[in-house]
Specification:
The protein has 14 helices and twelve strands. With 417 residues, it is α/β, with parallel strands linked by helices. The strands form three sheets. The chain has an eight-stranded parallel β-sheet. It has a two-stranded antiparallel ribbon with strand order 5-7. A two-stranded antiparallel ribbon has the order 10-11. Bound molecules: L-rhamnitol and zinc ion. Zinc ion binds next to loops.
Length: 417
């Protein structure tokens, strides 16, 4: 008997249908972040590199993508290692600027045409992000909430440009482009006035989002944060700030798994948010003691998250984006591990004995509910996962290491630093 049949029987004995789980998993579309391939570098002239943005990439593994062609090649390789059909999340600094200096307040859809063509060819819908960091006007730690009006206006204009670009992408690809806005604004030291910058941010967002676009083209999301490097004492765009703003303006919240207290459960927040928001955007990341953006692995936090989405029945209204950047290892391999881990966690969520668990839950039988979940932990999830990889024509976990190492030898290691 083949491995999948064995697994299928094990699950069937618990009233779980593995074929249905695989069908559900095939429909999942994750949004892969373009910035793992080059350590959030982008293609502005001169190349800005990550600085002054409250975030940090560590490591110097050779082979990072240096040009748009290399980045696309790496992405294509990454997609070939990830089962299913997925999206790409671009940052504004990744435009095709053709060696021209184009400042952030003048970018337009024309700078993303080659991306749109590439994406259409690859059948990969695009999502988008404004880049409010790695820029001289962000160096003192404030952008949309900056005390200087001219600097606020510069960033408001950048935000407007990004919304225009996102709308154009969505229109062309026939799938709404998710536009996420994250700003680094905050301070390392304790400020006296916490209110005024938040008031300025509120007003800036109002101006930035004045223009309304069809929901079929683009949808706004606002990303909350608790602290960052250099903004340990105060972050203007806190969770409470954006919860209030997003609820009132009927836009999406973006929850990044690294943007909360280390023991705070993001999974627990979802059921509350689903009651008040049409949609949620997630940045699946892995904080290690701080917002360190480690590569996502199949751990309890991730499993809690995917189980919660599935248990709530809110897969449709939850956009799952990835957000990590690790330069200490093969960057394409990092994409594969991160995305595959999220898919595995979703598979585990689909393979729960839902009706029995719900029954014990309703009866408040805490022991039986716990015992059944413990039993599930030892079911042959890996065999079902292998089947998914086989059916999707991508390497199994066992084959993955060799695939990535070959790519490193043949392609990435030939790139000069
Ligand atoms: C930063 C946010 C944000 C960035 C990207 C590059 O803390 O998580 O999403 O990681 O915009
Ligand atoms: Zn994020």
């Amino acid at each position: 008997m083949n491995q999948y049949q064995i697994a299928k029987d094990c699950y069937a004995a618990m009233d779980i249908n593995t074929d249905d789980a695989l069908t559900a998993l095939k429909k999942i579309s994750l949004s892969l972040h373009c910035w793992q391939a080059d350590d959030v570098g982008g293609f502005e002239q001169p190349i800005s590199g990550l600085d002054g943005g409250g975030i940090q990439v560590t490591g110097n593994h050779p082979g990072k993508a240096r040009t748009m062609e290399e980045l696309r090649l790496d992405l294509e390789k990454a997609y070939s290692l990830i089962p299913g059909n997925h999206r790409l999340n671009l940052h504004a600094i990744y435009g095709d600027f053709a060696s021209q200096k184009v400042d952030r307040n003048t970018i337009g859809p024309q700078h993303f045409l080659s991306w749109m063509d590439w994406a259409a060819e690859q059948k990969i819908p695009l999502d988008f992000n404004g880049t409010f960091f790695s820029h001289p006007y962000a160096n003192d730690g404030f952008t949309l909430s900056h005390p200087k009006k001219s600097i606020r206006e510069f960033w408001i204009e950048h935000g407007r440009c990004c919304r225009r670009i996102a709308a154009e992408m969505g229109k062309r690809q026939n799938s709404p482009c998710q536009l996420n806005t994250w700003i680094p604004d905050g301070s390392k030291e304790v400020p006296i006035n916490r209110l005024i910058p938040r008031e300025r941010l509120k007003n800036s967002l109002d101006s930035m989002m004045e223009e309304s676009y069809s929901q079929q083209w683009m949808r706004d999301a606002l990303e909350t944060k608790l602290f960052g490097i250099g903004s340990e004492s105060y972050v203007v765009g806190s969770h409470e700030f954006y919860m209030g703003y997003a609820a009132r303006h009927d836009v999406k919240l973006c929850l990044d798994m690294g943007h909360f207290h280390p023991t705070e459960s993001i999974a627990d927040k979802l059921s509350s948010l689903y009651l008040f928001f049409q949609e949620i955007l997630l940045h699946v990341s892995r904080p290690v003691r701080w917002d360190s953006d480690h590569v996502v692995i199949l751990n309890d936090e991730l499993l809690d998250l995917t189980r919660e989405i599935v248990r709530c029945g809110h897969l449709q209204s939850t956009h799952i984006g990835l957000d990590f950047f690790d330069a200490t290892m093969n960057r394409v391999g990092a994409y594969a591990i991160g995305a595959r881990s999220v898919l595995k966690a979703l598979l585990a969520a689909f393979l729960e004995p839902k009706s029995q668990l719900k029954e014990w839950d309703a009866e408040n039988n805490a022991f039986a509910r716990m015992a059944l979940q413990e039993q599930c932990k030892l079911l042959p999830l890996g065999m079902v996962w292998d089947q998914f990889c086989l059916e999707s024509n991508v390497p199994t976990d066992k084959q993955l290491i060799g695939e990535v190492m070959d790519y490193e030898t043949l392609v990435q290691s030939r790139r000069q630093a």
